[in-house]
Each structure stands twice: as C-alpha cells, then as structure tokens.
Specification:
Distance between the termini: 52 Å
Helix content: 55-70%
Strand content: under 5%
Number of helices: 20
Number of strands: 3
Strand order of the largest sheet: 1-3-2
Largest sheet: 3 strands, antiparallel
Order of helices and strands: HHHHHHHHHHHHHHHHHEHHEEH
Radius of gyration: 26 Å
Low-confidence stretches: 1-27
Shape: globular
Length: about 425
C-alpha cells in the first residue's frame, strides 16, 4: 500500500501545559490534518466502489497536495505504483529532485536550530526545536523515522497537556497508515494520562478518536455513545468535519441504540438537525426507522450502504450495517403484532413474499428475530423471549464451564 504521510499538528487550548505549536481554542477551526486527508484520498483512488471520475478527482487532489507540501517519498511511491498507472502521470525526475533538495535544506535548518537552542537557549526552546523537526519528519519521512522523532520529543516533555498533544499526533500518524492495532494500543496505554488531568477540549477530542476507533473495529454501541457525548462540543476538526461526524453518529446509532434514545439524543439534537438536511438519504434512514416507514427505510438503507463503501473506516462494515438495520427493522415491526401475514409484512417493507420468506427463515434460525413461521398458512407469529428461562440456561452453561475448569485445575494440582 502506498505510504501515507503528512503534517502532524495538534490542536489544544492555550494553558500552562499548551504546546507552543498547538492551536489556540480561540482560533478558527483547524483544517483537517493533511496526512489524514491524503490517506482518505488514496483510499478512494484504490477503492473499487468509486467510479473513474471520483478516482481521478481524488488523484488530482493527492498530486496537488503532494507537490504543494513537497512530499518526495509519497510522490515517488505514487508515480511508481502500477495500480495508479491510469490516474498518476509518469514520474517527473526534475520535480522529484527539487523536492528532495528542498527537504535536505529544511532538515539542515531544523538541525541547526536544535544545536543553537541547546547551546544558547533554555529547555523550553530546545523542546520546541526538537518538536518542529519531529513534525516535519512526520510529514516527509518514513513511519519509523516519525516514531523515533516523536520519542525524542516525548523524552523532553513533562507537562500533561503537551504529553496529550503528542498522543494525538501519534494517533493521527497511526490512522493515516491504517494501523488500528496501534490506535487501540495508544488509547489503552494513555487512559491514565487523560484521566489524570487536561482540559475539557482535549478530553472531548479524545472521545472522537475513541469513537472512530470503536466504529472501525465494529463496536458500534460504544462508538455511538462516544459520538453523542462529543457532538455538542465538537472541536476535533483535524480528524473529520462536522457533517462527517453527524454521518458516523447516525449510522452507529441506528445500528446500536433503541428508539427512545434515537429520538431524544439524535433526532431532537439541534446539532444533528443543523446539518442532516444536507444528507437526504441519511435523514430518511433516521426518520423512517423511528417512524416505522419500512419501505422508505430499505430504500434509504441501500443508498446509505453505497456511501459506506466509499468510507475508509466503514467500508469493511457496509454489509454488516445493511444486514443489522434490516434485522432491527424486522424485529421492530413484529413487536407490534402477535401474528401477521407474510404478504402484509412484505407489502410494508416493499419486498416480495419470496424474498421475505427466505430472509426471515435465515434470521429466525439464527435467533436474530423472535418469531416462527407458518409457511402453509403464510403467517409469521411473534414469540416473546422468556427472560427467566434464558437466564437459567445461561447460568447452567456458565456453571458447567466453571466446573470443567476447576476439574482441570485439580488434576494439574494433583500432578
């Protein structure tokens, strides 16, 4: 996969722990991190769900950013990648040489600034110089070089706020390379750091990173709660814009939350209502699910699923979302009936009897829908789950498992 590199600037409020290179909370919204933006555009270039026009548009933006930022490694990688032969023009050796020369000059200047700071200035200035070099290496170097440079900055950092900003920089670096394992590790390892202090803005930004990670690993219930917590005070514009945040919020909520919560925290949210009108399919998906307009729901679901295939985080889960929303819709519909004819249910969902018959048969067999089918009579009967019986069965199973483990342990102890 093509190397993904970019600028790594962290946004934070200006307090005693603020990084000198971080943005003030009073400044205009920070633009999306270039590396995250490049990662998404390169994903579009290689995504079979995108048409040729979309791929060409993405490649044009990638080349523009690459040349503007002077990213020699990314330019060489794109030009030599056979998969992008139709999208990227042949390598311009002169342009590449100019980029490399400019990078060498800049690195020399950054190294000289570090030497000067160590000889003539204080610890704060030394850290600022080392940080400046690290951010440049994150943009222009390899991932290994970036990690090493950030480690050097970390060794010079003691303030909590500055340590948090470094975590955000590492998170963006991992996301642009698509390394979800590293993202999860960073979030887990720095839980105590964010719990020990920091301002509300940093903590709110962390919720967005956590939500994106949870969504990317298909923990939609956790992701939905985090997105809802962050949406009212959203400031994490270096990772995604607000319409995209609303998009992720609605998708995860429809897959994971109950109808009352969707009504109070999503549909009635002024932040969601401000921008959801710009995404008609998403708005229809949300409203039709809550209002039980199932035919419109399936139509909107098909359109939203197509857009999921174009998203770098949700593409692997597009089929899951498509299936899960249908399962929730079937269960929601059947809850209102003791029994209903197959033809009536098929009419409500705008599908054929044969399709619904096959779909429900599979879901009932998998215990995803609490119902049974009378195929001869063409009737679907709702079965109410027996909570006490289910709890009893679960307790017996867990007890058997515990006894087996105790027996194995006793044999080991006897030996």
């Amino acid at each position: 996969r093509v190397s993904r590199v970019s600028t790594s600037s962290s946004m934070s409020t200006m307090d005693v722990d603020s990084d000198p290179m971080s943005s003030s909370s009073n400044s205009p919204e920070e633009p999306q991190d270039v590396g995250v933006q490049l990662a998404f555009l390169i994903f579009k270039m290689s995504n079979p769900s995108c048409n040729l026009s979309e791929k060409k548009s993405a490649s044009g933006l990638v080349l523009s950013l690459t040349k503007e930022r002077g990213l020699s490694r990314l330019y060489a990688s794109l030009s030599s990648n056979a998969a992008f032969k139709e999208l990227v023009p042949p390598l311009d050796a002169k342009l590449l040489k100019n980029m490399q020369d400019a990078e060498e000059v800049k690195m020399t200047e950054l190294d000289a600034a570090i030497v000067d700071a160590r000889e003539n200035l204080g610890d704060t200035d030394v850290r600022a110089a080392v940080l400046a070099k690290a951010l440049y290496v994150c943009e222009h170097g390899t991932r290994e070089e970036a990690d090493k440079a950030l480690d050097e900055v970390d060794a010079l950092t003691s303030a909590t706020g500055q340590k948090m900003d470094l975590v955000f920089t590492r998170l963006k670096l991992a996301l642009r390379y698509g390394d979800l394992t590293q993202v999860g590790k960073l979030l887990h390892d720095n839980t105590a750091l964010f719990a020990s202090g920091g301002d509300w803005e940093r903590k709110n930004r962390l919720k967005v990173y956590e939500a994106v990670y949870k969504m990317a690993v298909r923990k939609f219930s956790d992701a939905a709660q985090l997105f809802l917590d962050a949406i009212a005070t959203f400031t994490c514009t270096e990772l995604l814009d607000f319409p995209t945040l609303v998009y992720y919020t609605v998708v995860t909520c429809v897959c994971a939350l109950d109808r009352p919560t969707i009504k109070t925290r999503v549909m009635d949210s002024p932040e969601v209502r401000t921008v959801i009108g710009e995404q008609p399919s998403l708005q229809t998906l949300l409203s039709s699910f809550y209002e039980c307009r199932y035919k419109e729901l399936l139509t909107a679901l098909c359109e939203v699923t197509d857009s999921l295939g174009r998203d770098v985080y949700l593409r692997p889960h597009a089929k899951y979302v498509f299936r899960e929303v249908r399962v929730r819709a079937y269960a929601q519909f059947l809850t209102a009936y003791k029994s209903v004819t197959m033809s009536r249910m098929a009419e409500q969902f705008g599908v054929s009897d044969a399709f619904l018959d096959e779909e429900l048969s599979t879901l009932i067999a998998a215990d995803r829908v609490n119902a049974r089918m009378d195929k001869a009579g063409g009737i679907v009967e709702t079965t109410r789950p027996d909570v006490k019986s289910a709890l009893f069965v679960k307790t017996v199973k867990e007890g058997d498992a515990l006894l087996n483990r105790i027996q194995k342990l006793s044999k080991i102890c006897d030996v």
